[in-house]
Specification:
The complex is a heterotrimer of chains A (about 350), B (about 280) and C (about 450). Chain A is an all-alpha fold and about 350 residues long. Helix content of chain A is about 70%, strand content about 0%. In chain A, helix 1 (about 10-20) packs parallel to helix 14, helix 9 (about 200-225) crosses helix 11 and helix 13 packs antiparallel against helix 14 (about 305-340). Chain A starts with 11 loop residues before the first helix and ends with a helix. Chain B is an all-alpha fold. Helices cover about 75% and strands about 0% of the residues of chain B. Chain B has 13 helices and no strands. The chains are: A mainly alpha (about 350), B mainly alpha (about 280), C alpha/beta (about 450). The interface of A and C includes residues 49, 84, 195 and 303 of A.
C-alpha cells in the first residue's frame, strides 16, 4: 500500500516536492514518516476526496481539450472540414513533417519563432526574477513608506493586461511616443528616431514590456515566501558575524528554494507561451523579431484556417517543454540532495 | 538583513530605479487620459498643453464600461474563489499525503500548464457546445463558461504554487495539531492555511489578475451582455478612431478597485507572519 | 471538530459553490432562443460600420424594430468589432452554433463558402430575398465562387478613392492627379520631411490594406493572383512590379513617412490627413465619417480615382463591401431569408447607406452617403467602371494573410533603412505562395 514516491527521480513533480527546504527534515526521511501515517485506514480515501474536484475540472478543461488537440494534429483540419470535423482526412505525420521541415517556409518560420521565444523567455525570466528578488529583499525590513512602495510596485500587475501593454505600444511609437521623445528630444542620444515596434528592436521592446508586467508577480511570490523565513535565522547569522550578502546566500536563497523552483519554472512556462504581450503590442503586424511561438501558432491556425498544423506545432511545443521541465526538475533536485 | 550602509544604498537604488520603471508608463497613462484626442495623437510632451477631464466623462458612453466592469468582477471573483478552493484541497493532499496516483496527478497538472492556451480555444469551444446541447447548460456566451475557462489557466499554477508553500511549512506543526486531536482537515484549516496565508493570497491575486486581463478567450466566449473589461477596452478603437485618451482614462478608473484590493490583501499578507509566529 | 463533520462541511461548501455557479449561469443566459414558427427570434451579428459599436446599435435598432413590426420576427442584435469577427465566425462554424444571419467582409465570401457552413442562395432562396436582378451585378458576383450558388449577398458597397487635401494642393499650384506619375510628382512637391509633412500616408503596417494594394497595383499591370484552376500565381512579373511600385512610394519616391510602416490600421492615416500632416490618403468611402469625426470639414478634401501608371489598366479599387450570409445551422430559415430581403430592400438601404457611408448595392439607386454630389459620382464611377473583384477562390483568405504579411515585412525593411529589390519582392511572394499551397493541400 501507499507505494509511491520515495525515489526522488521517479517523477518530475516529486523531485520538486522533495526539494523542499530542510525545515522539516531531509527529503529522504519524510516519505517514511508519511507512509506511517497513511497506513491508517481512515485516511486512505481522504486524499482522493480532496483531489476529486480538481481532477474533475482538470479532465473537463484540460485533458479532454488536450486529447482533442492531439487528435487535431493528425488530421488535415482546414476550413473545408471545420464545419464537420469527423470528415477531415487523416494526415498521419504530415502536419508534423511540414512543421519540422526547416527547408520549407513554414518550418523555417516556426524554427525562427522558436529561437526568438527561447531568447525572450530566458531574458524575461532572468530579469523578472532578479527585479522581484531585489525588491522583495529591499522591502523585507520595515521603513517609512514601505506600504506605499509595495503597492506601487504591484500596480503594473493590477492594470488590465490590455491597458498596460497598450500604454507601452503608445510609448513606443516612433514619432509620437514617450521613449523616442526622451531619447531624441530630451537626451539627444539619437539623431534619427529608432523604430521600437519594427525590426530587431521589437525584441527589446517585447522583453521590456513583458518584464514590466511580470516582475511584480515575482516580487509578490518571493515576498510571500520570505514571510515564512524565521527572523531568528537572520539574527543567529548576524551574531555569527555574517554580512548581508552572506545571509542572503546562506539563509534567504535556501529558504526560498521550493518557492523559487516553482516560480522560475512557471515564469518560464508563461513567458514561453505568452500570447497577450505580442498580440496587443504588435496587433496583426508582428515583426519576425517579436514573433513568439504562441502567437505564431495562433496565426498559423486562425489566420490561415489550418488548425491541423497549428495543433501539430502545439504538440511539438508541449513535448519540448515537457523534456525541458523534467530535466530542470531532475537537475534542481540533484543539486538539493547533494547539499 | 541588517540596516548597514550598504544595504541602505542598495534599498535606495532598488526603490528608485524600480519606482521609475513602474511610474513612467503610469505617468504616460495619466497624462494621456487628461489630454484631448488631438494632443494624444501628436508628439508626446511631458506637460500637457491642454488639460481636459472629458475622456473621463465620454468613456462611459463610448463603451458600456460599467457593465463590462461588473462582468469582469463577477467572472474574476468566481474564478478566483473556485480556483483557490480546489487548489487548496488538492495541494494539501499532494503535500501531506502519500497515495497511489499522486505522481500521475502532479505530472499531469504540470504538463497541462505547458500546452499553449491558444489551441485550447477550438476544442474547449466544441466541448462547451456539446455540453450545451446535451444538458442545456449554456457555457458559450455565459459567465459560467468563462469562469470554467479561466480555471484552465489558474488551476494548475495554483495547485503547484500552493504545494510549494505548504511544503515550506514544517510538517511538525500539523502533526502536533493532530496529536492534539485535530483531523487532517482540521490541521489544514487551523494550522497549515494560516501559516500559508501569504501564499494563498499570492495565488488568489494571481488567479484574479489572470482572469481580469484575459483577452483571447473572452473575445470569443462572450457577447454583448456578458463581455468583460479586457475585451471591452478594445472597443475604444473603432472603425473611425482610436480613442487613446478614453482607453487610458477607463483603464485608470477600473484599476482603482483592484489596487485598493491589493492594499487590503497586503494587510492579510503581513498578518500571515504573525499568525505563523504564534504557532 | 471531527473529521467527518469537517468533511461534510467542506463538501457542502464545494457543492454550494457549484450550485451558485449554475444558478448564476441561469441568470445570465441570453439569446439563442430555439423558438420556431411565426414569432421566431433571429440572432444577427452585425459588423462595426459606424463610429462605435454603440453607434451601430443605435442606427440598426429602429431598422430591426421595423422588421419586427412587419413580420413578427424578433431580432437579437450583436455588433461585433473587426478584431473579433473572424474568430467568432470560425468558432461558430466549428461548433455549428452561431447566429442565424451575419455580416461578413465580402473578400471572405469564397473562403467562407468553402467551409460549407453557410446557406447557399439557390434559386428558391434567391427568389425569397427578391431575386438576383435587384443587385448590382459586380457586387453580387462577390458573393461566392464563380459557378456556384453564392452564400452571401451584398449589403453595403465600398470602394477605394484617393482623398486629397484641397488647400494643400491649391497652395502648391497642383491639380488632382490623373496618372500615377502625376500623383508621385505632386506627392514629392508636398513632402517636407523637416516639417513632418508628407505627400502620402499609407497604412503600411496593415496586412489587409497592403494586400488590397498589392492586388490593385498588380492588376493595373495586368497581373492575376490566381489562374483559372485556382492555383496561386503570385510571382508573375506584373505582380512583382506592382508591389514594388507601391513600396517605392516610401522607398525611392520618399513621399511616405517611414513611420507609416507601423500604421496597422487605416485610422492612423486618417488622423494624419485630418490633421493636415499629409496631402493624400487612400481610403474606402466610409473614411468620410472618420475624416469628419477627426475634425476636417467635408468640403476641405476632394476625391479622385486611385490613378494607374500611364498605359496601365484603369483599375482603381477592388469591389469592397460587406455581404450578408445565413448560417446553414439556422432553425429559422424562412425568417432569416425574409430578414435578408428586408435588409437589402431599397428602403432599408437608403436608411443605412448614409450613417454607414456605403455605396448602393442595388440596381439604379443613387448614392446617399455624402451630400457632396461630385464625390458621390466619383465613387459610383469607381465602383461601377474601375473595379475588379478580389480573387473569388477558396484560398482568398490565405492570399490576404500571406501576401499582406509579406508586404508588412517589406515595408518594415524599407522603413528601418534596408533596400528592397524586385528579387526581394519575388522571394517574399514565392514564400507566401508556398504557404498558400501548403495550407490548401495543393
Amino acid at each position: 500500500m501507499a507505494t509511491s514516491t520515495s525515489s526522488a527521480t521517479s517523477s518530475a513533480p516529486t523531485a520538486a516536492r522533495t526539494a523542499a527546504p530542510s525545515t522539516a527534515g531531509a527529503g529522504t526521511t519524510r516519505p517514511r514518516r508519511r507512509r506511517g501515517r497513511a497506513t491508517s485506514r481512515d485516511h486512505k480515501l481522504l486524499p482522493y476526496l480532496l483531489l476529486a474536484p480538481a481532477v474533475v475540472m482538470e479532465l473537463l478543461i484540460h485533458i479532454l481539450p488536450m486529447l482533442v488537440g492531439i487528435w487535431m494534429s493528425f488530421v488535415r483540419l482546414t476550413k473545408f472540414f471545420l464545419a464537420n470535423w469527423s470528415a477531415a482526412p487523416w494526415a498521419g505525420l504530415g502536419n508534423y513533417r511540414l512543421a519540422l521541415d526547416i527547408n520549407s517556409s513554414i518550418g523555417a518560420k516556426l524554427f525562427q519563432s522558436f529561437l526568438v521565444t527561447i531568447g525572450f523567455s530566458v531574458a524575461a525570466v532572468v530579469l523578472s526574477w532578479g527585479l522581484g528578488m531585489a525588491a522583495a529583499v529591499a522591502l523585507q525590513q520595515p521603513f517609512r513608506g514601505r506600504g506605499i512602495v509595495r503597492t506601487l510596485f504591484l500596480v503594473p500587475y493590477a492594470l488590465p493586461a490590455y491597458a498596460g501593454i497598450l500604454t507601452w505600444n503608445f510609448m513606443l511609437q516612433r514619432d509620437t511616443g514617450l521613449i523616442n521623445h526622451v531619447l531624441a528630444d530630451n537626451l539627444h542620444l539619437t539623431g534619427d528616431r529608432p523604430f521600437w515596434l519594427l525590426g530587431n528592436n521589437a525584441f527589446t521592446s517585447l522583453v521590456v514590456v513583458a518584464v514590466w508586467r511580470l516582475w511584480p508577480f515575482a516580487f509578490l511570490t518571493i515576498m510571500a515566501g520570505l514571510q515564512s523565513v524565521p527572523t531568528e535565522l537572520y539574527e543567529a547569522a548576524s551574531v555569527d558575524g555574517a554580512g548581508n550578502l552572506r545571509s542572503w546566500r546562506s539563509i534567504t536563497l535556501p529558504s526560498l528554494r521550493p518557492v523559487n523552483i516553482v516560480l522560475v519554472l512557471v515564469l518560464f512556462l508563461w513567458t514561453f507561451s505568452d500570447f497577450n504581450t505580442p498580440y496587443v503590442l504588435f496587433g496583426t503586424a508582428q515583426p519576425p523579431a517579436g514573433d513568439l511561438v504562441s502567437f505564431h501558432i495562433y496565426n498559423a491556425s486562425f489566420l490561415t484556417w489550418n488548425f491541423g498544423i497549428g495543433a501539430a506545432m502545439s504538440v511539438l511545443l508541449l513535448l519540448f517543454l515537457m523534456v525541458l521541465t523534467a530535466a530542470y526538475l531532475v537537475v534542481t533536485n540533484r543539486r538539493s540532495s547533494r547539499a | 538583513m541588517r540596516n548597514t550602509k550598504g544595504f541602505m544604498s542598495f534599498r535606495a537604488v532598488t526603490v528608485l530605479l524600480l519606482g521609475a520603471f513602474t511610474l513612467i508608463p503610469l505617468y504616460a497613462m495619466v497624462t494621456a487620459a487628461l489630454k484631448p484626442l488631438r494632443d494624444v495623437q501628436s508628439t508626446f510632451t511631458w506637460w500637457p498643453s491642454t488639460l481636459t477631464v472629458s475622456p473621463f466623462v465620454d468613456m462611459w458612453t463610448t463603451v458600456p464600461l460599467a457593465r463590462y466592469f461588473g462582468n469582469s468582477l463577477v467572472v474574476s471573483g468566481l474564478a478566483t474563489l473556485a480556483s483557490v478552493v480546489l487548489a487548496v484541497l488538492a495541494a494539501f493532499a499532494v503535500s501531506r499525503f502519500s497515495f497511489r496516483g499522486r505522481s500521475i496527478f502532479t505530472t499531469t497538472v504540470l504538463s497541462t500548464q505547458m500546452f499553449p492556451g491558444v489551441l485550447f480555444l477550438l476544442p474547449l469551444f466544441l466541448i462547451f457546445t456539446n455540453i450545451n446541447s446535451a444538458t442545456g447548460i449554456q457555457l458559450v456566451g455565459s459567465r459560467l463558461g468563462l469562469v470554467i475557462t479561466y480555471l484552465t489557466f489558474t488551476l494548475p499554477f495554483s495547485i503547484w504554487m500552493l504545494v510549494g508553500y505548504f511544503d515550506s511549512i514544517p510538517r511538525e506543526l500539523d502533526e502536533a495539531a493532530m496529536v492534539d486531536g485535530c483531523t487532517p482537515l482540521g490541521a489544514l484549516w487551523r494550522v497549515v492555511l494560516p501559516a500559508a496565508r501569504p501564499g494563498v493570497i499570492a495565488v488568489a491575486i494571481y488567479s484574479f489578475m489572470t482572469a481580469w486581463g484575459e483577452v483571447l478567450f473572452a473575445s470569443v466566449m462572450t457577447n454583448d451582455s456578458n463581455r468583460t473589461l479586457a475585451v471591452g477596452l478594445r472597443e475604444y478603437s473603432t472603425q473611425t478612431n482610436v480613442y487613446w485618451n478614453q482607453i487610458m482614462a477607463a483603464s485608470l478608473v477600473v484599476s482603482v478597485p483592484v489596487v485598493v484590493g491589493f492594499l487590503l490583501a497586503q494587510k492579510s499578507f503581513v498578518a500571515g507572519v504573525t499568525a505563523g509566529a504564534v504557532k | 471538530m471531527t473529521r467527518r463533520a469537517f468533511l461534510a462541511a467542506a463538501s457542502t461548501c464545494v457543492l454550494a459553490l457549484g450550485v451558485a455557479a449554475c444558478s448564476s449561469s441561469g441568470g445570465s443566459t441570453t439569446s439563442a432562443g430555439g423558438a420556431t414558427g411565426a414569432d421566431a427570434t433571429l440572432t444577427y451579428w452585425a459588423s462595426n460600420q459606424g463610429t462605435s459599436l454603440d453607434n451601430d446599435k443605435q442606427v440598426l435598432t429602429p431598422v430591426l424594430d421595423a422588421f419586427t413590426k412587419q413580420t413578427g420576427v424578433k431580432v437579437n442584435l450583436e455588433v461585433i468589432g473587426w478584431n473579433d469577427l473572424q474568430t467568432r465566425i470560425q468558432t461558430a462554424i466549428t461548433s455549428g452554433s452561431g447566429p442565424d444571419v451575419l455580416n461578413i467582409g465580402n473578400t471572405w465570401a469564397s473562403s467562407l463558402q468553402a467551409t460549407g457552413a453557410f446557406l447557399p442562395y439557390d434559386s428558391a432562396a434567391m427568389t425569397a430575398i427578391g431575386g438576383p436582378d435587384k443587385f448590382v451585378k459586380a457586387a453580387l458576383d462577390t458573393g461566392g465562387m464563380a459557378g456556384q450558388d453564392p452564400t452571401s449577398v451584398p449589403l453595403y458597397g465600398l470602394a477605394y478613392g484617393l482623398y486629397y487635401n484641397k488647400a494643400m494642393f491649391t497652395a502648391a499650384g497642383l491639380q488632382p492627379p490623373t496618372t500615377w506619375e502625376e500623383m508621385v510628382t505632386a506627392a514629392k512637391k508636398l513632402t517636407v520631411p523637416a516639417k513632418q509633412e508628407y505627400g502620402f500616408s499609407l497604412a503600411a503596417g496593415s496586412y489587409t490594406e497592403n494586400v488590397h494594394f498589392a492586388f490593385i497595383n498588380g492588376s493595373q499591370n495586368g497581373g492575376a493572383w490566381f489562374d483559372a484552376a485556382g492555383k496561386p500565381t503570385f510571382t508573375s512579373d506584373a505582380n512583382v512590379q506592382g508591389v514594388l511600385r507601391y513600396l517605392d512610394l516610401m522607398q525611392t519616391d520618399k513621399v511616405v513617412n517611414p513611420s507609416n510602416a507601423q500604421y496597422d490600421n487605416g485610422t492612423k492615416s486618417v488622423n494624419d490627413f485630418a490633421a493636415g500632416k499629409v496631402a493624400m490618403i487612400l481610403n474606402q468611402n466610409n473614411a468620410d465619417s472618420s475624416i469628419v469625426s477627426n475634425g476636417m470639414k467635408s468640403d476641405a478634401y476632394g476625391v479622385v480615382p486611385f490613378p494607374s501608371p500611364s498605359g496601365g489598366q484603369k483599375i482603381a479599387t477592388f469591389i469592397a463591401g460587406i455581404n450578408l450570409s445565413v448560417m446553414k445551422s439556422t432553425k429559422n430559415k424562412d425568417a432569416a431569408l425574409s430578414f435578408v430581403k428586408f435588409m437589402t430592400s431599397p428602403e432599408t438601404q437608403k436608411t443605412l447607406d448614409k450613417p454607414f457611408s456605403a455605396l448602393p448595392v442595388l440596381q439604379g439607386e443613387t448614392p446617399v452617403f455624402t451630400d457632396n454630389a461630385e464625390e458621390a459620382k466619383t465613387f459610383q464611377d469607381i465602383y461601377a467602371t474601375m473595379s475588379k473583384p478580389l480573387p473569388l477562390v477558396a484560398a482568398e483568405d490565405q492570399f490576404e494573410s500571406t501576401v499582406g504579411k509579406a508586404m508588412n515585412a517589406l515595408f518594415a525593411k524599407v522603413a528601418t533603412g534596408g533596400t528592397v529589390s524586385a528579387t526581394d519582392v519575388k522571394t517574399a511572394l514565392q514564400d507566401a505562395q508556398d504557404q498558400v499551397t501548403a495550407a490548401t493541400g495543393g
